[in-house]
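DM from R.C. (forwarded with permission)

"hey, sorry to bug you on a friday — could you get me a structure for this? deadline for the figure draft is monday and I only need the backbone to look sensible"
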Amino acid sequence: MDGIVFFATERHDEVVRFYRDLGAAVWREQPDCTILEAGGFRFGFCARDHADTEGIVTFVFEDRAGVDAAYESLADPGDPPAFNDTYDIYQCFATDPEGRTVEFQTFE
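My reply, with the result:
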């Protein structure tokens, strides 16, 4: 079984560009929605009069090198990646153009 997570967006083109710059590819275009794909993760943004900004969009990498590369690709990086003892993960966070929290992590 596959799945897609959809988000309403007020800034469709800017948000889609942000995630494409991170390496996501367009999987499918629909009249007011773009579905992106990164590895096996599919997520879509649909133009609406409000934005869904709750939750965290998390990209999981094979190793620390993937997390580090994602962090380095950010135009406006936040805190650098660090090990999280509680969850036994290496991670960092960013914010997309509408304020959604974006996480890059690898399990250790």
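R.C.: lifesaver. The chain has one domain: 5-107.
me: no worries. The mean pLDDT is 95.
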